[in-house]
């Protein structure tokens, strides 16, 4: 219950702090007989890794994952899969100057208020470093989904005020990895990259939006009432550091539409029931209907900035906080694989849950 | 795991279909010693009840709740609280014409795809009637929160294109119940009401936004990683029928801000640590910081409309669906108490979880 | 977490006190498409019902179950099944004399210590009346198991010092219901019945043992580590009121055996792998091996007796407690259907869990 | 749900196989501010370690635990505690001869039936090696309980037919660690040791019983209905490899007693409510009453024996299995710290759960 477990049947439990000895996770419930492509897991981690381009944090971490258990002769056995990534570049000294200060819009104050203590080095448990464990677990979920023909693809659709118009159908998602921003529109990507560099030069940060689409999802995934598929997807996204909003299908814009315009008509297309439009975002009554599932997640500007900021310390005294640590000017390029990982874990979980639907 | 339970420590399990014998719930984990004001529970249900005004569905249900257990001499005992609301006005005949048809943007098709069977009367389990059980459970959570000085207040901030500018601080929330729309701005409420009536006259429906604020919440609620307070709030909202999006604090708009502008500076105000701005929406690193928690939930237009719609039936044949059942032209006025209920349940749960934070 | 839910995927949540308005439960996760024989559910309740014979409590309760939801046209729909049994014969006055007294070996004191309050009427939530809800839920589990050819049968194998020698294979389990004791050996049953009557005449009570066998269980049910099939069965039994011990297979007696004697040799019997002996009780490494699963559950003598007993009241003062309420002289005859219900729920849950074992 | 997690609020998730790279666990929910004596954790592991005496398996494992996270400046932070023990002495070759054979009364066959695959080396996940992770987690639970004055002590009370008469009150538990059998009666310990050596010399194995007592436990721990304190203790014990039975308080012997004899009278002892006898074993209605909690767990003879045994292989062919691996002639001496660990984890969990009992 302490919040470090995600999923019911395909579930991960993560551990680790930014500057501790290792971060890692246990994947429990991954079905037996899944071939594990360890290189793929490592490649997914590389997509999230710091230092991968000029527009992300320059902290150096190889993020080499070690597999401890649950895999035998290249396949999962049904036993829990323990994994760890040892922290290589833990410059604890970088953070001593903020040991008793509460950095604005970080978790320093709230962690202190909750536990009366905290590992202040690099944000400790609240560091986005924790998401590496999610990506490792999500990579296994992706391999599982692959066997169902399900694919999760995310991309950057907005950085600051620069917003890609249209939907996921208007872009070529195979181009997402072709630029450091992970925006599949090359023109927009170039603008975003320039903008992020400007912001970084000013010692500042900016927010963004990650869009995602899940294709190949069969009808029938999701539960009624509370564990609706989109509710679990929403929680998955909102649990990612810096995420402030989630919408799926027509989302906030759908609010202004009429029912007659918003409703997705069913039709029989060569024996398969499909909808002519997809404002529902592939989910109706909380359960997938076989159409593409698409959603958007909003990320706030990173809280670590260079200019001095007014704050208080543990004693409640006024202090000045200065951003010395290495940080991302914009979180969304590296958030793309995290969004995919969390979506993959959510869908994998619901595939297993679906297996109990009928006698 | 079948999705009908919400919460970890303060938890509800709901049951019931639109046209079955009764809907109801079990509240498990409500602490002992809480005085239960049964009239308050009933009053909350009245806020959600059909037929309460001209702009909501005219289905007639008294929604009289019966308490089965867990309360003794006016107080909770720590035992589970069973409650039921018997269905009075179950006109099953109304629905025979859609027994094998999939109504567009309803859950008919997905339920059929998942379970191979469904109670088609009034949407069965997918009916918004299920939310009455949430409101009953949420009323107990509200009573629990009251003992902590915590209050949850929601209101309608948008209907179709009619959007109330500004934030919750710009309106007088004591006026929310003064009009049938539940918009605290009387001028805007009048416009919204007229608009909803127009839409209804056209046999159509329209979406809306419910905004909410939680005041009096102490710092320290929420868990790191996956069970962040806002992630659980988001899931709670997204689990409500017709909800398509959730954002808290600066939300999607915060994306375009710079970190230097978005960060909330801490200051010591008469011995209490507060923030000068509140783009964080009262939650940092997933944990409450003692400031107001505010969020918005988007609701799509109701799927039931009067004009004939093209669809298919279970056999995959093209059919026409006509809206005969009683329905809401706009869901948000009645969604207000549901949003409050789900938020109250979420916070109550995290208050209990917080009790395990320290040795 | 408040303890009123059993099972992970096939799960029940019960509510209700001895003298409240109703007891009941929600069955969540029962797969769709199961024909529900309501008469069978009622018949199972009749086996647990008070007043069914001279050797059980004479409290009069019809124990008529009402189905609220989750069943449509005679079949489960996958939606939660709400059920209630209204309390007919709630003589609250019977218990006013013990309102502030702690009855020896009852839960009065511990409930008071835990919650600071309690519904003292008839033991409130701690009353064995709660087990009626288990039997109703277990009846659905039995119907589910039946479709797999799995059967759970329990019987009384010991009352006080009167112990049936041999194993479940030495008796004809079809005779269990032929006598009020529910001991399949007619001679022993007669002795036990006489003994129970003697004990009752003395105003006293006595304990007993219920034995059970699960036949038709496929290999592969159960999880490694903590949720071993026998561990969940053990918890299920120990959760029944008055249960003090559990053993399966060779149990406590197996302790004195040598490995060479205790090991069950595998052999191929017409293409099926079986064991020549079954000291393992059908479970190896926590997972079923396809052989019969058998176990025993020990029940202490009922705490309610007629002779005056020394005790204390809430103020800590010495008081005398006298047994006025109607009670069972021996719990095991009525425990038989409860043991079966809890075992059926456990196996049903593991059948659903097993569905996620492989890719 | 895959069975590798124990506990609700103070919870462990374990991973690892006998011959994989590492075993380990995540402790989630351990409250913040607990001083962690790492040497104590290591000392507990030493009590379980193979090779510690002549009467246990001679497999050589240092069982050196590494702490990955959740501890900062010597104290828990409330973040999950990752731990691992690397496997040093993994002689995979020892097991190639049984790669496709099902060893009698091992989990080989059931794992194969469940997952269609298995790590056959040393039993893989079904190896008792997994219990090292439990002991590490249990050591943290013990440190937590210590701050409450609660102590868990287990000892060997039976080996084969050699049974220590009397109760835990008749022995001096401070002597348990004074001999390799972990029986606090030196005379009996010597007999047991001789007996185990004889059995080992014959290439055979024998079972035993571990008794335990929990002192200092406050009244009020445990939940009604399903999560009774003794039900969770029972599940904890039964989840340990080779455990076949559990009883608490009067247990199976209490069956033959009369209620008038079995009931524990309450009395006021200097302002504290106590019972004059303790047949209840410190638990009434599933909730602790402040008296000593005591129980017994039965362990079967270890399945690995030296003499050749008839069995079958994956193809269903008759084969002979010979015991070549290193193994324990009797499991109970090393089971003592495991029993203590699981009991400590159970009580720690219920202490946290108890914190939600009252408003």
Automatic annotation (TrEMBL), chains A, B, C, D:
<dbReference type="InterPro" id="IPR000453">
    <property type="entry name" value="Chorismate_synth"/>
</dbReference>
<dbReference type="GO" id="GO:0004107">
    <property type="term" value="F:chorismate synthase activity"/>
</dbReference>
<feature type="binding site">
    <location>
        <position position="54"/>
    </location>
    <ligand>
        <name>NADP(+)</name>
    </ligand>
</feature>
<dbReference type="Pfam" id="PF01264">
    <property type="entry name" value="Chorismate_synt"/>
</dbReference>
<comment type="function">
    <text>This reaction introduces a second double bond into the aromatic ring system.</text>
</comment>
<feature type="binding site">
    <location>
        <position position="285"/>
    </location>
    <ligand>
        <name>FMN</name>
    </ligand>
</feature>
<keyword id="KW-0274">FAD</keyword>
<dbReference type="GO" id="GO:0010181">
    <property type="term" value="F:FMN binding"/>
</dbReference>
<dbReference type="GO" id="GO:0005829">
    <property type="term" value="C:cytosol"/>
</dbReference>
<keyword id="KW-0057">Aromatic amino acid biosynthesis</keyword>
<keyword id="KW-0028">Amino-acid biosynthesis</keyword>
<dbReference type="GO" id="GO:0008652">
    <property type="term" value="P:amino acid biosynthetic process"/>
</dbReference>
<dbReference type="GO" id="GO:0009073">
    <property type="term" value="P:aromatic amino acid family biosynthetic process"/>
</dbReference>
<feature type="binding site">
    <location>
        <position position="48"/>
    </location>
    <ligand>
        <name>NADP(+)</name>
    </ligand>
</feature>
<feature type="binding site">
    <location>
        <begin position="241"/>
        <end position="242"/>
    </location>
    <ligand>
        <name>FMN</name>
    </ligand>
</feature>
<feature type="binding site">
    <location>
        <position position="326"/>
    </location>
    <ligand>
        <name>FMN</name>
    </ligand>
</feature>
<protein>
    <recommendedName>
        <fullName>Chorismate synthase</fullName>
        <ecNumber>4.2.3.5</ecNumber>
    </recommendedName>
</protein>
<comment type="pathway">
    <text>Metabolic intermediate biosynthesis; chorismate biosynthesis; chorismate from D-erythrose 4-phosphate and phosphoenolpyruvate: step 7/7.</text>
</comment>
<dbReference type="InterPro" id="IPR035904">
    <property type="entry name" value="Chorismate_synth_AroC_sf"/>
</dbReference>
<dbReference type="GO" id="GO:0009423">
    <property type="term" value="P:chorismate biosynthetic process"/>
</dbReference>
<feature type="binding site">
    <location>
        <begin position="300"/>
        <end position="304"/>
    </location>
    <ligand>
        <name>FMN</name>
    </ligand>
</feature>
<keyword id="KW-0521">NADP</keyword>
<feature type="binding site">
    <location>
        <begin position="125"/>
        <end position="127"/>
    </location>
    <ligand>
        <name>FMN</name>
    </ligand>
</feature>
<keyword id="KW-0285">Flavoprotein</keyword>
<keyword id="KW-0456">Lyase</keyword>
<keyword id="KW-0288">FMN</keyword>
<comment type="similarity">
    <text>Belongs to the chorismate synthase family.</text>
</comment>
<comment type="subunit">
    <text>Homotetramer.</text>
</comment>
<dbReference type="InterPro" id="IPR020541">
    <property type="entry name" value="Chorismate_synthase_CS"/>
</dbReference>
């Amino acid at each position: 219950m302490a919040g470090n477990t995600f999923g019911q049947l395909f579930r991960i439990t993560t551990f680790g702090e930014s500057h501790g000895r290792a971060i890692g996770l246990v994947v429990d419930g991954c079905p037996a007989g899944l071939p594990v492509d360890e290189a793929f897991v490592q490649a997914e981690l590389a997509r999230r890794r710091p230092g991968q381009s000029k527009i992300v944090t320059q902290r150096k971490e190889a993020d080499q994952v070690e597999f401890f258990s649950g895999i035998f002769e290249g396949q999962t056995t049904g036993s829990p899969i323990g994994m760890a990534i040892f922290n290589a570049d833990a410059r604890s000294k970088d953070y001593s100057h903020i040991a008793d200060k509460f950095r604005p819009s970080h978790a320093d104050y709230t962690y202190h208020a909750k536990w009366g203590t905290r590992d202040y080095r690099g944000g400790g448990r609240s560091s986005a470093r924790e998401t590496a464990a999610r990506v490792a677990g999500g990579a296994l979920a992706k391999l599982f989904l692959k066997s169902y023909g399900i694919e999760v693809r995310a991309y950057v659709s907005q950085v600051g005020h620069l917003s890609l118009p249209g939907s996921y159908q208007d872009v070529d998602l195979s181009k997402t990895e072709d630029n450091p921003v992970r925006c599949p529109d090359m023109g927009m990507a170039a603008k975003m990259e320039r903008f992020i560099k400007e912001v970084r030069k000013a010692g500042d940060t900016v927010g963004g939006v990650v869009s995602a689409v899940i294709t190949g999802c069969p009808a029938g995934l999701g539960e009624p009432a509370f564990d609706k598929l989109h509710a679990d997807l929403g929680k998955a996204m909102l649990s990612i550091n810096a995420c402030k909003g989630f919408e799926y299908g027509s989302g906030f814009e759908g609010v202004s539409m009429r029912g007659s315009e918003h409703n997705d008509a069913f039709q029989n297309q060569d024996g398969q029931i499909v909808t002519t439009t997809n404002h529902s975002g592939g989910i109706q009554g909380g359960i997938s209907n076989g159409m593409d599932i698409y959603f958007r997640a909003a990320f706030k500007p990173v809280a670590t900035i260079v200019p001095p900021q007014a704050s208080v310390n543990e004693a409640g005294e006024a202090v000045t906080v200065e951003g010395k640590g290495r940080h991302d000017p914009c979180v969304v390029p590296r958030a793309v694989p995290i969004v995919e990982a969390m979506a993959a874990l959510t869908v994998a979980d619901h595939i297993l849950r679906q297996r109990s639907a009928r006698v």
